[in-house]
C-alpha cells in the first residue's frame, strides 16, 4: 500500500525548524508544517496518525539509508553488519541489503525472515549465547556466512550438524574484560555475564583449541561486543588491543593467522538534545590506526574488520506517535496518558531511558508545564517520559511524538493487556507506505486454541 499524503513534498510548504527549537535528535528530514505540526520524510505526523491510527511507528527510509552510507564511508574496507535485533522487517532488510550492509541475527526467525526477503545468507552472521538446535540447524541449512560461537557447549553441537566434507565458518565471541555501555543490563564486555568466553580465565583460549580441532569448523576470527550505548572510542581500543593479543597467541601456539576481527556494535545515539553520541568518523580513525599499529607490533597481517551497529543505524530514523487519552491533574503532578506505553516501548521501564516527547499536530500555547507522560498499561511503572516539558494546554485528542524510536522499541514489544502491537510505516519523499500492519485481536486469539 502506498499513500501520498497531501502535497507537502520537499518542495511544498514545509518550513525549516523554528529558531530555538532543537530538533537535532529527530530525522534530518524533520520540518515544521504550518499549523504547528512536524513533517518527517515530507509526511505531516498528524496526517499519518489520522490515516494509520495511533500508536504509530514511522521510519524515515532516507535516514536509515544515509546512516548506512555514513558507516560505509567511514569504514570502506570493513564489513558493516546491521544488528537486526534493533528492528527488523522485510523492508528494513531490503534497505540495508541495498546499501551494502550485512545482517547480524540472533534467531532462526530473524534469519528466515531475512533470507526469504532475498538477503544473501553469506552476508549474515548468527549470534546468541544460547542458540537453540533449530537456530543452528537453520543456519547450517541456509548457509549463513558466520556463526559466532558463544560457549564451549556449542562447539561439538554445531560441528555435529555440519555435513561431512563441509566446513562452517565460525568466529569465537571473546569477553575482553572491558566495561562499557549505558546501563548494567547492556554491558557485555565484562567477565561473569552470560555472553562469550573469557580471556582472563583462559576459556577463550581453550575454546580456540577445540574449534581448531573440529574439521567441520573453519575459525575465521575473533568477535567481541562490549556493550550498548557506548559513547567513547576508548573501550573499543582497549578491546581491540586484547583481541590482537589473543590473535598473536593463537598464531604462536597453532600457527594459525585469523583473517577477520569483529568489534561488535554498541555505538551510542542521543535520545535527547545534548546527550553524547559516539562519533563514527572518530571511531573509524582510531580503530584503523590501532589495528595497523597493534598488528605491526604483533607481526600480524591486518585482519578484515567487521562492525555490527544496530541502534545507530535505525534508532534516530524512528518516530513514535501517540494520541493523548486522558490528562489527570493530581495535587503534585500532571499525568498525560497516551494510547501506547511499555508494551511498544519497554526501554524506560527496563533501563530508565529518558525520552523527550513533543506535542504535534496543532498550534499550542507557549506556556509550558512539567508533566509525566504515562502509558495505558496496567502498571504504575508504565511511564514513557517523566518530568518533561509540554505546552500547558495539552489535552485529550492531542498527538505526542517521540523521536529516536527506531531501535529496541517494537523489536521488544509485547501484547500486554491484549493490545495489538502498532503498525510501522515508511516515509520518504512525502509518501507514506505501510510496512507492518497493526496487530489485530484476531492475530492474537488465533494462537489461543485451548478453550
Ligand atoms: C546488540 C548487539 C549489537 C548491536 O548493538 P547496538 O547497541 O544496537 O549497536 C551488535 N552485536 C551484538 C553481538 C549484539 O548483541
Using DSSP, what is the number of strands? 22
CATH topology of the largest domain: TIM Barrel
User: Residue-averaged pLDDT, rounded?
Assistant: 94
Coarse shape: globular
* Termini gap: 36 Å
Molecular structure report:
There is one protein chain. With 451 residues, the protein is α/β, with parallel strands linked by helices. It has two domains: 2-60 and 316-445, Lyase, Ornithine Decarboxylase, Chain A, domain 1; 62-315, Alpha-Beta Barrel (TIM Barrel), CATH 3.20.20. Helices cover 27% and strands 24% of the residues. It contains twelve helices and 22 strands. It has helices spanning 45-52, 61-74, 90-98, 108-116, 133-142, 152-159, 203-212, 234-254, 280-297, 311-314, 347-351, 441-445, and strands at residues 2-4, 31-33, 37-40, 43-44, 56-60, 79-83, 102-105, 124-126, 146-149, 168-175, 197-198, 217-223, 260-262, 304-307, 318-329, 334-338, 358-360, 368-374, 383-391, 399-403, 424-428, 431-436. Strands 1, 5, 15, 16, 17, 18, 19, 20, 21 and 22 form a ten-stranded mixed β-sheet that branches. A hairpin with a 2-residue loop joins strand 3 and strand 4 (43-44). The longest helix has 21 residues, at 234-254. The chain is globular, with a radius of gyration of 23 Å. It starts with a strand and ends in a 6-residue tail after the last helix. Residues 1-13 have low confidence and may be disordered. Bound molecules: pyridoxal-5'-phosphate.
Q: What is this entry, summarized?
A:
The protein is an alpha/beta fold.
